[in-house]
Amino acid sequence: MAIRVLLVDDQPLLRTGFRMILEAEQDLAVVGEAGDGLQALDQVRALQPDVVLMDIRMPRMDGVEATRQITGPGKDGPAKVLVLTTFDLDEYVVEALRAGASGFLLKDAPANELVQAIRVVAAGEAMLAPSITRRLLDKYADHLPSGEEQVPNTLHTLTDREVEVLKLVARGLSNAEIAADLFVSETTVKTHVGHVLTKLGLRDRVQAAVYAYESGLVRPGAQ
Questions:
Q1: For residues 40 and 34, what is the distance between their CA atoms, to the nearest angstrom?
Q2: Which of 112, 114, 119, 129 has the fewest Cβ atoms surrounding its Cβ within 10 A?
């Protein structure tokens, strides 16, 4: 079945461009459009998309709040949010990731990257490349914990190996890279990642990476 996509952007011309790109792919179907966050919420309820391409800065309700209401805590609907931003460093992107977005993509990314990002997010992965999360968080180093804060109690629910895996996820390693680093199989890594997400009540790898930085488990810029 085709991946159902909802386009959310306050610029009609951009929505038209995205639609032309996506509808050229046999496995993608644009099921609707919205010009602001409030319209997006209505469309998500009515159309049940698999992936929402979400602009950040929009009238009435911005993309952060819309993302929070679509995929935030307590939400178990199928829709996943891929944030679109004009700038490489957008002050709202980290908030969108915290709100439940599965990743972000620049609006001027090549068409093939946009298409692949939608497929990856729809499949349940966090984003195009986990390293993007680390690069973004490193840029916000001044706003994140220094590592000297008290470790959250929830972190103590993890085994030592799960903590290792969480650190590597936060540092941008893929499952294959983590498997090579720890000398285990990719299946084992996937199992550990699943346990980490379940124990910490997180939606995906992006939120796991944000958690690792915010808890001080990983420091921005650390190797």
A1: 5
A2: 112
Mean pLDDT of the chain: 82
DSSP string, 72-121: STT---S-EEEEEESSSS-TTHHHHHHHT--EEEETTS-HHHHHHHHHHH
Joined tokens for residue 95: 């908030």
Q: Give the span between the Cα atoms of 185 and 19, in whole angstroms.
A: 39
How many other C-beta atoms are found inside a 10 Å radius of the C-beta of residue 221? 9
Indicate whether this model's pTM tops 0.85.
Answer: no
For 77-121, write each residue's pLDDT tens digit: 678 999 887 765 556 777 777 778 887 888 888 899 889 889 888
pLDDT at 135: 59
Torsion angle, CA of 207/212/213/219, rounded to 10 degrees? -150
- The CA–CA distances, whole Å, from 132 to 15, 97, 152, 185, 214 equal 24, 12, 25, 24, 17
- Please give the distance of CA 161 from its chain centroid, rounded to a whole number: 24
| CB-count burial class (<10 Å; 0-12, 13-18, 19+) for 83 | buried
Structure tokens at 118: 């939608």
Please list the alpha-helical segments (H only) found in the chain: 12-23, 37-47, 63-71, 93-99, 111-122, 130-139, 160-170, 175-182, 186-200, 205-214
